[in-house]
Amino acid sequence: MSERVHPPEAAAMACPPSVPMGGLDLPAADGPAAIGAPFPVATGSWHQRHRSAARRVDPRFHSHFESPELQRMALVAALTVLLAGCSMLPEGRGLSRAPAQPPARSSTSTAALPPPPAAETRQCINQLAKAQVRFTPVPDQTFGAGCSQLGSVRLSTIGLTDIGRGRAELAISNIGPVRCELAQRFAGWAQYGIARAAEQMLGSPLVKIETMGSYACRNIAGSLKLSQHAHANAIDIAAFVLADGRRISVKQGWNGSNQERAFLRTIHSSACKRFGTVLGPDYNAAHRDHLHVDMSGQGYCR
Fold first, then answer.
1. Does 69 share its domain with 164?
2. Do 57 and 162 belong together in one domain?
3. Contact 36/2 with Cβ under 8 angstroms?
């Protein structure tokens, strides 16, 4: 035994305070001996003190517990009753086992993003069509490791309307399936944020947005958590092509000319008003060559 034990009447008392030891909550030591000290022998002062108290409570103690062997058996039984009673108390009050070792996490999370309600997807698709966006609905698919394409569409072009030139179409390159809500936000950003900033700040209409893709069944770089890309809920934008032939890339333009820097930071700020999370070159080295936008988060903008 490695712990002090109280006489039999202690089983009827309130459970003693506890102190942590090796992941367990064990009754605290009473007196000079610490938890982990050897079991007290019958000749010790502690034993004599509690045996005397027991005699006062029950005169029969002398006849039943004079034998050292019987005393030891009684003390062990008392401890069993005491700990059994404490274990019935709410968590943190009695004896509890150390928590089991959590299972090793796999390289990807298995928690899939729940699908959007069908009615919301239908409404979103109708709104996309009214916004002069060309797209193709993508059948719902769920893949291994929690990856999915649910309520998604594949964008082709985004309509732009200019008073002077009429209607034009903005090409979107290298983009895969995206959730409809994300596609709707992206189209609005392209029409009223990027295209207008290009004409006003760069002096030429926007004709194409080059992306680095959308859906990809993978984790966030350097973590065990699934990326929003794994749910078709994120887009990475690499560059913007103008009608006069100029190509403004995030990689070169973020710290490029004053005009390029101003344009890219302006559209970065406008994206922060539309998406849940926006990450750019100032976030970390992994985003040095693109702007990441997704529908998670609560307006995180870096």
1. no
2. no
3. yes
C-alpha–C-alpha distance, residues 23 and 301, integer Å: 41
- The verdict on residue 190 lying in a domain is yes
What is the rounded CA–CA span in Å between residue 88 and residue 71?
27
Name residue, tokens 């000290």.
37
Residues in the chain: 302
- Residue 18 domain flag: yes
Question: Among 2-11, 140-149, 259-268, which stretch is predicted with the lowest mean pLDDT?
Answer: 2-11
Task: Domain count for the chain, please give it.
Answer: 2
In this structure, the answer to whether residues 136 and 24 fall within a common structural domain is: no
Whether the CB-CB separation of 159 and 133 falls below 8 Å is answered with yes
Alpha-carbon distance of 291 to 186, in angstroms, equals 12
pLDDT tens across 168-189, in order?
Answer: 899 999 999 999 999 999 999 9
SS3 75: helix
| 79 contact partners, CB below 8 Å, separation of at least 6 | 1, 3, 5, 6
pLDDT bucket at 247, cuts 50 / 70 / 90: very high
Decide if 224 contacts 105 (C-beta within 8 A).
yes
Of the residues 86, 101, 128, the one at which a domain ends: 86
pTM of the model: 0.63
145 and 213 part of one domain: yes
Q: 59 lies in which domain range?
A: 8-86
Residue 32 — φ and ψ, nearest 5°? -70, -25
Amino acid letter for position 56: R
